[in-house]
Design brief:
Layout lengths: L1 H18 L7 H18 L8 H4 L9 H5 L4 H18 L11 H22 L12 H16 L4 H28 L1
C-alpha cells in the first residue's frame, strides 16, 4: 500500500514536471515539492518535547527571516536564496542522525524530496543564457553554520535534533511564501 502511494506521488511529480515549461517557470512544481517536504517534516515528529525546552535556550542563532532577506530582490536572487536554504537543510539532514527518534524511512523520504527540489532549482539557476552566477548569501550561510555547530556541541542529541526540526519547519514555511511571491511576479 505504501509503495503504491509513493509510486503515485512520484508519477504525479513526473507528469507535473513534464507539463510545465522548462526554466524558472517550474516554480509551480517547487511549491508542490516544498509543500510535500514540509508535510514529511511535520510527519516526522510530534509536538516539541517539553524536556528539550531548556536546551533550546542554548542555541545562539537568531531566527533567520528569509522573507525579509528576499524583499526587494530580483527573481533570480530570490531563487538563489531558496536554493541555498534547501542545500543547507539537506546538508544538515545528512549529518549524524544516530540519536534521532524519527523513523529512518521518514528521514530518507525528506532527504529525497530535498534532493529533488535542489535538482529542479539547479536547472533554473543554471539555465542557458543566464548571466547570474550562484552567489552565497552570508546571512543564510552563517545561520546554518550556527545550526551545524549547535548540533555538534550538543553531540547530535535527540533534543538538539528536535530544535533543528523546529528551525527547519520555520524556514520551509518561509520558502513557501517566497516561492509564491516569485510565481506571482512571473
Amino acid at each position: 500500500m505504501a509503495l503504491a502511494s509513493i509510486w503515485r506521488f512520484w508519477m504525479m511529480l513526473l507528469f507535473l514536471s513534464g507539463t510545465l515549461s522548462l526554466g524558472c517557470e517550474r516554480l509551480q512544481l517547487q511549491q508542490v515539492l516544498n509543500t510535500e517536504t514540509l508535510s514529511k517534516l511535520n510527519a516526522m515528529g510530534g509536538p516539541f518535547p517539553r524536556h528539550c525546552i531548556r536546551q533550546r535556550l542554548s542555541l545562539k542563532a537568531k531566527p533567520l527571516n528569509l522573507v525579509k532577506l528576499s524583499k526587494e530582490l530580483e527573481t533570480q536572487d530570490r531563487i538563489q536564496i531558496v536554493h541555498q536554504t534547501l542545500r543547507h537543510i539537506s546538508k544538515i539532514y545528512s549529518m549524524n542522525l544516530g540519536s534521532v527518534t524519527w523513523a529512518r524511512d521518514k528521514v530518507e523520504n525528506l532527504r529525497l524530496l530535498l534532493d529533488r527540489q535542489l535538482g529542479e532549482l539547479e536547472e533554473c539557476i543554471r539555465k542557458p543564457g543566464s548571466e547570474h552566477k550562484m552567489r552565497r548569501n552570508s546571512a543564510i550561510h552563517n545561520y546554518f553554520r550556527k545550526l551545524e555547530k549547535f548540533l555538534k556541541q550538543e553531540k547530535f542529541s535527540d533534543c538538539a535534533w528536535e530544535i533543528i526540526h523546529t528551525e527547519t519547519r520555520a524556514r520551509l514555511q518561509q520558502l513557501l511564501f517566497i516561492i509564491a511571491q516569485i510565481s506571482r511576479r512571473n
